[in-house]
Amino acid sequence: MIRLSGRLVCMTEEERAAVLTHRPAHEAATRAEAGCISFRIDDTDDPMIFDVSESFRDRAAFDAHQTRTRDSAWFAATRRILRDFRVEELRD
């Protein structure tokens, strides 16, 4: 299993608005991907920071997600937002 956790850190209201606008479609598209176990982008106490957590069945599913994301409206709108992510590969 591959697990990603971390934060999106917005520096401007425009970045925050991009997350809020594109989050629902991005979450729905990701949850529908083959191999997605879980995917969440949650608000925090700081309105400029969002917690991100995602789990995928294996490296292939995670890589497919990354490829799809790079070609999405979500990525076009949020690519400049600071991402503070940690990726772990969990083995049985």
TrEMBL record:
It comes from Paragemmobacter kunshanensis. The keyword Oxidoreductase applies. Keywords: Monooxygenase, Oxidoreductase. This is Antibiotic biosynthesis monooxygenase. Transmembrane segments: none annotated. Pfam families: ABM. GO terms for molecular function: monooxygenase activity. It comes from the Bacteria. SUPFAM superfamilies: Dimeric alpha+beta barrel (SSF54909).
